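TASK: fixed-backbone design
INPUT:
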């Protein structure tokens, strides 16, 4: 069973570039919508991360633009947890909601950093791992 969540958004005028397609820099915001939905499902979104004493900077983001998104288009953003024991790695698929056509594939990697010391951890906090495992194996 893969752990995923979905979010939806609609392309607005302010998302566009001079070619009347979504400006590439706005895709990071779309990924954040998907990531937020996934972390909410896990029960460990940014407020819970901060409360546990950790911050999770994105250290790598990769995007593959398959087709452009356009004004008024409804987008479905699916975020799937790919890795969670030493880092958080999430895969994304942004599709046209109506047609189901793939528009963009992406991936982000986040590392765990102690909020007080700024030191990088080489593992994820046990409470995060427990929450993920509980969703994988809900006995």
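OUTPUT:
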């Amino acid at each position: 069973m893969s752990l995923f969540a979905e979010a939806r958004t609609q392309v607005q005028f302010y998302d566009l570039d001079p070619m009347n397609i979504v400006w590439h820099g706005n895709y990071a915001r779309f990924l954040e919508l998907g990531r937020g939905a996934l972390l909410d499902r896990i029960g460990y979104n940014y407020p819970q991360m901060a409360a546990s004493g950790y911050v999770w900077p994105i250290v790598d983001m990769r995007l593959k633009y398959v087709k452009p998104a356009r004004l008024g288009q409804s987008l479905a953003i699916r975020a799937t947890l790919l890795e969670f024991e030493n880092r958080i790695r999430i895969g994304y698929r942004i599709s046209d909601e109506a047609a189901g056509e793939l528009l963009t594939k992406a991936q982000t990697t986040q590392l765990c950093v102690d909020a007080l010391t700024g030191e990088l951890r080489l593992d994820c906090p046990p409470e995060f791992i427990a929450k993920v495992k509980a969703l994988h194996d809900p006995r």
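COMMENT: The chain has one domain: 4-136.
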